[in-house]
Every structure is written in structure tokens, then in C-alpha cells.
Specification:
40% of the residues lie in helices and 24% in strands. Helix 2 packs across helix 13, helix 5 crosses helix 8 and helix 7 packs antiparallel against helix 8.
């Protein structure tokens, strides 16, 4: 666990030091669980969003986009169930006066069991070497099987208790597992209570007539209330999807783990409308499609797993998370949910407006069922960033810190470096910048020795460094250095665009799906 914590601290400090993520309002001592994306972070975030949008909207003829407003009529949130049921189970420690999410305390306990399993696997892998069969070991080693069964039983009981709203049993489980306050080590807990997560605000000029509104806690409802507008104006035939990216807001009491759980965050969601009865096939199909999207980025299949929900939301008939191995363990990155017809039926009931679709193929009118894919953009950023951050031992007994971002997502695609700041080299380098910047985000850097400039570009994840030297003046060639292998090759200036495009082109990466 200590190793994981060290790695996570490195992620947080690297994100600040190299201009990816800053604490919000830092000069005023910051605002808890609110962050700003800095000059490199905003580019990485935009590239992730674009990569999702291209795969989700541009590559599907039957999926279109939407950008709904953050403010919505307050009845929206009554219809969606958020006013009555959008709660977290909270528990206070009487000695430290700290408040925690009860479910997170229990999940962290199970996370420690997972860490014990990892340790057993590592020990066995060392012991058996080449002949080690990980799957067989996980299935047959008594200690590992014991930890797994214990963890599954705990999560199952918690899921059932939360579903029945049996908060007394959630507290009893915390007491039985002897879970202590992470801050004080005290086990002196209050009862578990529900807390609504929506931020309230007012709309209107005067206090007397102002309408109570909420900041949206998810982007999905903007899609549901526009279902018929989009379907009619776009002449969409079922099955079809509506995709949206945008800000959402949740008053997280236990916001933590850097940008993993924030109060203001961004979602990338797609609601796919299907004929009732076909939802299970579409649910399985979208699970597979979404995992392929993640795998196309080459961040290691072993870092992903599906987790089927024990506790289903009242409106769902199936739900699974794609979990990613963050520095603090496997956690939810994306959710795929079969939401039945709950949303559209509920909005139809509360608004009094028909939200039905006439299906010409079966000559029937019905309320469509929905399969949702929902991913946190900030979580995806953290997954990409933490996976990419590596320290490498080099042959000359030095180490380098390198951010091995998928080239398609890297904030800057190439840095152009004149070897020295004289002899006409900066002029040639700037001419290359002027030419390449039409197609790629490129950087010009002339400060320090070229080796130090390479290290700086490694640390921000730039896939290529292009060095202009004295030979360039004679033969129009430059040295191109590849970030991951550190290999260098001599190439013609006119070939640079094609070389970079081949590595960073969205098509190259998405074709891996």
C-alpha cells in the first residue's frame, strides 16, 4: 500500500509541476476537491474528449450529439428521482469529528483484501518463475480464494443493505469488520444517515419570486428531455443514440483522491434508445464496444476489468462498471447501464407530454428502452496520466521521468529544438514550427542543453523531438527522436508531417478497435 501511495503522490506532484492540474483558487489556499486544468492538462483533456467523440458520434451513423444547458426545470430532478433518492450513506466519527461515506469505508476495506491477493500473486510469481500460471493460482490457492470470498461476501451484504435502505446493517458491518477512522484510528461511529448530493441555487432577480433550481448532477437528463426533439428533427430511427459531454456537480462530502472524485466534474455520456426486449443484447454489445475503445489506447488489458453491480438502481435491469487499475487500486472508470424505460416514462408522467416513438417496422407506438454508457472525463484523464507516468533506469546509471501518453492524446505532438541559438538554426526551426502547426500542436524550445530539453519534453509526454543542427543547413535533414525508445533517426524536413501523422492520427488508434 505504501508503494501505491508513493506512486500516487508522484502523480499529483508531476501534474502540478508540469502544468497539467492546479488546485483551484490556490492563492486563497484552494477550494477542497475543485481543480483547474493547466496549459498541458487542458490539451490532454480536450484530446481525450475528442477521441471519445470521434469514436462515439463520428464513427456511428445512428448516434448524434447534444449540448444541453446545465440549468434545467426543477421538476426534471423530481421526475428523475434525484430529489428523493440521490443520496450517499454518511457516517461520522465521534472522536475525530470527520465524516465519511460508509460504502467507501467498506470498499476500502475490501481494497486491502485485493492488495493482499496481489502480494500473494507477486510472491508466487517469484517462486515459480516461468512456469507460473496466474489464473490457476487465483482459482486454487486457499489463501487467495479465502480473501476473494471474504471480499465478495462483504460487498454483497453491503449492496443488499443499501438496496433495502437498511442503514443500521451498514453500520453493523463497519463495526463487525472493526473499521477504524483513517485519521484517528477511533472506532466510535455515529449511525449511518443519507445525504442528498445536489447543489441548490436560485433563478430570478428578487428573493420573493426566485425559483429554486439545482446544478445538474448528471448530463443524462438533458438527453432524455430532448429525446423527441432530436428524434423528429434528425428523423432518427430506433435504435439510435444521443451523446453529450459536459459539466456536472455533486456535493461530495468525501471528495478525495485528487481528480478522481470532485465536486465539479465532466462526463461523457451516450444514451442509446432501443426497442423494448432488445436491451440485453444492446447492453452486452455496448459493454464490448466500450472496452475495445479503452483497449485501443494500449494501456494494458490487465489494467481493466468488469464489475457487475450487486446493487441495481431501481430503474435498471443490468449494470456493470469498467474498472481501471489506478495507483490506489481498481476503481470505476465507466458505467454501462440498462435503464429500461424508466427515464422517458417518468418524464412523460411528470410533464404530461407524450414521449413515445412510432416504430414503422412493427407498426407500434412505445416508450423506448435505454442503454447508457457513462464515463468521467476527469477519471479518464487520471487513468491515462497515472498509467503513463514512469521512471526509467537508463544505461548510463541515470533515471528519466517520462510520461508515456498514447501519442494520439499527447498535448504537444512534437517539439522543435535548434541545437544552438545562433548560426541561423533558430530561423530554420521556427520555419518548421510555422509549417507543422497547421496540423499539430507543436512546441519550440531553445533554452538549455539539448539533453535537458529532451528530458523536459519526456516529462510532458511529447512523442517527438526534432533537432535542427548545422548539417540541416546543408542537406535539409533533421534528427527526430522518439520519446518511448529514445531512438534517433535522420529524416528529411519534408517527411516530418507524414512521420508524425502516422503516430498521432486518430484513425491509426481507433482502427485497433
Amino acid at each position: 500500500m505504501a508503494n501505491q501511495e508513493d506512486q500516487f503522490k508522484k502523480v499529483v506532484s508531476h501534474a502540478k509541476e508540469y502544468g497539467f492540474v492546479f488546485q483551484s483558487s490556490e492563492i486563497y489556499d484552494g477550494l477542497s476537491a475543485v481543480y483547474d486544468y493547466a496549459q498541458n492538462g487542458v490539451e490532454l483533456k480536450k484530446n481525450i474528449r475528442d477521441y471519445w467523440w470521434k469514436a462515439m458520434v463520428q464513427m456511428h451513423e445512428n448516434i448524434v450529439g447534444l449540448d444541453a444547458a446545465i440549468f434545467m426545470h426543477p421538476t426534471t430532478w423530481k421526475a428523475s428521482g434525484h430529489v428523493d433518492a440521490f443520496n450517499d450513506p454518511l457516517i461520522d466519527n465521534k472522536d475525530s469529528k470527520k465524516r465519511y461515506r460508509a460504502d467507501v469505508l467498506i470498499e476500502d476495506y475490501v481494497g486491502k483484501l485485493d492488495a493482499k491477493i496481489e502480494k500473494e500473486v507477486e510472491k508466487a510469481a517469484k517462486r515459480f518463475g516461468e512456469s507460473f500460471d496466474k489464473d490457476q493460482f487465483l482459482a486454487t490457492n486457499p489463501r487467495v480464494v479465502g480473501y476473494k470470498e471474504q471480499g465478495d461476501a462483504i460487498l454483497k451484504r453491503m449492496g443488499q443493505s443499501l438496496e433495502k435502505e437498511d442503514l443500521a446493517d451498514v453500520k453493523a458491518l463497519i463495526e463487525e469488520l472493526e473499521i477504524a477512522c483513517p485519521l484517528s484510528g477511533s472506532r466510535n461511529w455515529t449511525d449511518v444517515k443519507q445525504f442528498n448530493l445536489m447543489f441548490g441555487t436560485k433563478l430570478g432577480a428578487s428573493a420573493d419570486t426566485a425559483m429554486d433550481l439545482y446544478l445538474r448532477p448528471e448530463t443524462a437528463q438533458g438527453i432524455f428531455v430532448n429525446f423527441l426533439n432530436v428524434q423528429k428533427t434528425g428523423r432518427m430511427k430506433i435504435p439510435f443514440g444521443i451523446a453529450q459531454t459536459g459539466k456536472a456537480f455533486r456535493n461530495e462530502i468525501v471528495a478525495r483522491q485528487f481528480i478522481f472524485r470532485m465536486r465539479e466534474f465532466e462526463q461523457m455520456e451516450m444514451q442509446f434508445f432501443v426497442r423494448p426486449g432488445t436491451q440485453k443484447e444492446w447492453y452486452e454489445s455496448w459493454k464490448e464496444t466500450r472496452l475495445k475503445w479503452h483497449l485501443s489506447l494500449g494501456m494494458g488489458a490487465e489494467n481493466y476489468r468488469f464489475h457487475d453491480h450487486e446493487k441495481l438502481a431501481h430503474y435498471a435491469d443490468a449494470a456493470a462498471d469498467i474498472e481501471f487499475k489506478f495507483p490506489f487500486g481498481f476503481k470505476e472508470l465507466e458505467g454501462i447501464h440498462s435503464r429500461t424505460d424508466f427515464d422517458l416514462s417518468s418524464h412523460e408522467k411528470f410533464s404530461g407530454k407524450k414521449l413515445q416513438y412510432f416504430d414503422p417496422e412493427i407498426n407500434e407506438r412505445y416508450i423506448p428502452y435505454v442503454v447508457e454508457t457513462s464515463i468521467g472525463l476527469d477519471r479518464m484523464f487520471l487513468a491515462v496520466f497515472s498509467n503513463a507516468l514512469q521512471e526509467e533506469e537508463l544505461d548510463n546509471n541515470t533515471t528519466r521521468t517520462v510520461l508515456k501518453l498514447p501519442a494520439v492524446l499527447a498535448p504537444t505532438k512534437a517539439a522543435i529544438l535548434p541545437l544552438v541559438k545562433k548560426d541561423g538554426l533558430p530561423e530554420v526551426a521556427k520555419k518548421i514550427v510555422e509549417d507543422l502547426k497547421w496540423d499539430f500542436n507543436v512546441d519550440y524550445d531553445e533554452k538549455d542543453a539539448v539533453g535537458r530539453r529532451y528530458r523536459r519534453q519526456d516529462a510532458v509526454g511529447t512523442p517527438f523531438c526534432i533537432t535542427v543542427d548545422h548539417d540541416t543547413l546543408n542537406d535539409n535533414t533533421v534528427t527526430i527522436r522518439h520519446r518511448d525508445s529514445m531512438e534517433q533517426q535522420r529524416v528529411k524536413i519534408e517527411d516530418l508531417r507524414e512521420i508524425i501523422k502516422k503516430e498521432v492520427d486518430v484513425k491509426t488508434w481507433l482502427m485497433k478497435m
